[in-house]
Design goal:
The chain is an alpha/beta fold and 526 residues long. The chain is built from 23 helices and 16 strands. Helix 21 packs antiparallel against helix 22 and helix 22 crosses helix 23.
Length: 526
């Protein structure tokens, strides 16, 4: 009879908060009580832990067991507390040493004592490390994922009996030479594991080459500028013109993710349960939700523990909304906040969960419901009324479009143009220019911003970075005439800097400003 302690982690968004699991075993009627704002999944741990203890030949206490999850004011969700509850109970009755109080435990228990994988191990372990924990026990299936966090000794266990043997210092058979033995040695391998991902300069995933896109010079140019920025893009054109092809080839133009972005993106996919391979995500992710997706599916949310939506899963990558006018208006407008702040805030009665969502938004739309309208034909082949065409594109609100930096027409490719079109530059050639342009932007802005798209407006408009008044005249005139907002002024100027970087120039000139204005207003004008 006594008190046992160990550590676990509760996830609020992508933030892992350390939870101390206390188990008090005292004389009285045999019952198990779990306190500390647990949800139904945590409360059910009582039955899973009792069965797992029996299956592991560890007699459950025949007494009153009170389990407290501290801090008690923090909501706890999910089944990742099972292993910590079992170990704290065993510590309370003296079946494992008290040193487990400083060890983190994450994992779900089966009724047969198996330790099962859980989502969100990476952000949970990150939270434990930030709190000073240096040793964690996780399911064997999540061990490689946990070893992505440097500075930790990671033990992967397959069952509760193996975890008990680990804490007692008893040997345990390791089938195939991995498992607990590999987990025990995880601390020394952590640094190497963090670096062991897709190497820089590796070819992008097989999503097709940019040279596959025929007869769309404006679209190809826009995709290159968007990749170099990185900026947001709207493509307006009839079906079959190549909008989806251009969007799908954008990730191949983007450079590999840096260490911080790679760790954050991997943590997001770990929390979402979509981390297929336990290694850092080095290539920018690409998310393309269906137009029937709900607000929670796109921006994140749900009941209980908020889950990342497509916007968060696209962090440091591309969020592509094909046939964007078909999305519900609320879904599109919900993207306005993450486009500005790079984060999704999910508000619940018990608190706010923040999920990273700094992505490139790529929108593709037909010019009308039937898709046959075009600037060249003045809608002659279109059966839609002018009112139907206007209401169709009006589903894209003005505040949302004001945050889209480039808006381009992608016209239909005729048979003659198809036959005469020359093969465009391959992805590798364009990607090299994108890397060079991003390097120039990084050197210019320094610690203030890594890319042109992230430069604060105050720095953008201050000396020595502010172009001369005669160069800025088209932007100033647009603001005076009401065709550009103050936000649009800054965004067009950022695009102009990107165009200058792609051209190898030290600052934007009249040509870059004019092209930036044309990119911003082309779709609206057509």
């Amino acid at each position: 009879m006594g008190l046992g302690r160990t550590l676990c982690a509760a996830l609020v968004g992508l933030d892992g908060h350390v939870v101390e699991v206390e188990a008090h075993v005292a004389p009285g009627l045999v019952c198990w009580v779990v306190v500390g704002l647990p949800d139904a999944g945590v409360l059910e741990a009582r039955d899973r832990v009792r069965s797992a203890l029996v299956a592991s030949r560890q007699a459950p206490p025949q007494a009153r067991v009170t389990v407290n999850l501290s801090p008690a004011g923090l909501s706890k969700s999910g089944t990742a507390f099972d292993l910590g509850v079992a170990i704290s109970v065993l510590a309370a009755v003296g079946q494992v040493p008290g040193s487990v109080a400083g060890v983190g435990h994450v994992g779900e228990l089966g009724l047969d004592g198996a330790v099962r994988a859980v989502p969100g191990v990476l952000p949970a372990v990150l939270g434990l490390r930030r709190a000073g924990v240096r040793q964690v026990v996780v399911p064997a299936a999540n061990a490689e994922e946990a070893r992505l966090v440097p500075g930790l000794r990671v033990h992967g266990v397959r069952c509760l009996a193996e975890a008990v043997a680990l804490h007692r210092g008893e040997p345990w058979p390791v089938p195939g030479g991995d498992g607990a033995g590999g987990g025990t040695g995880g601390g020394g391998d952590t640094g190497a594991s963090t670096a062991a991902a897709v190497p820089r300069g590796a070819p992008p995933p097989a999503v097709g080459d940019l040279s596959d896109v025929v007869g769309q010079p404006m679209g190809r140019r826009a995709v290159e500028v968007v990749a170099a920025g990185p900026h947001h893009l709207l493509m307006l054109g009839p079906p079959g013109a190549g909008k989806t092809m251009l969007a799908a080839r954008l990730p191949g133009l983007l450079p590999d993710l840096g260490d911080e972005d790679a760790l954050t993106a991997t943590a997001v996919h770990s929390l979402a349960g979509t981390l297929a391979v336990p290694q850092l995500i080095r290539r920018p992710p690409f998310e393309s939700p269906h137009h029937t997706a709900s607000v929670s599916a796109v921006v994140g949310g749900g009941t209980g523990l908020p889950r990342p939506g497509a916007a968060s899963r696209a962090h440091a990558g591309v969020l592509f909304l094909d046939e964007c006018p078909e999305f519900r208006r609320g879904v599109l407008d919900a993207l306005r906040q993450p486009l500005e702040q790079g984060v999704v805030e999910v508000h619940r009665s018990r608190g706010v969960a923040r999920l990273p969502a700094r992505f490139q938004l790529v929108l593709a739309a037909n010019p009308c419901p039937c898709g046959k309208a075009s600037a060249g034909s003045r809608g002659a082949a279109c059966s839609c009324t002018p009112m139907a065409r206007r209401s169709y594109l009006a589903r894209l609100s003005g505040p949302l479009l004001d945050r889209v930096d480039l808006q381009v027409d992608v016209p239909a490719v005729t048979a003659a143009r198809w036959a005469q079109a020359e093969l465009g530059e391959p992805t590798a050639v364009v990607a090299a220019r994108v890397v060079a342009a991003r390097g120039a932007a990084g050197r210019r802005w320094g610690a203030a911003a890594p890319t042109n798209a992230q430069v604060p407006g105050s720095l953008l408009r201050s000396r020595p970075h502010r172009p001369a008044a005669r160069v800025l005249a088209p932007l100033v005139d647009g603001v005076d005439r009401g065709t550009l907002t103050a936000r649009g002024f800054d965004r067009a100027l950022r695009v102009a800097w990107t165009l200058a970087d792609l051209a190898g120039r030290g600052s934007p000139g009249p040509d870059e400003i004019a092209e930036a204005v044309a990119f911003r207003t082309l779709a609206a004008a057509s």
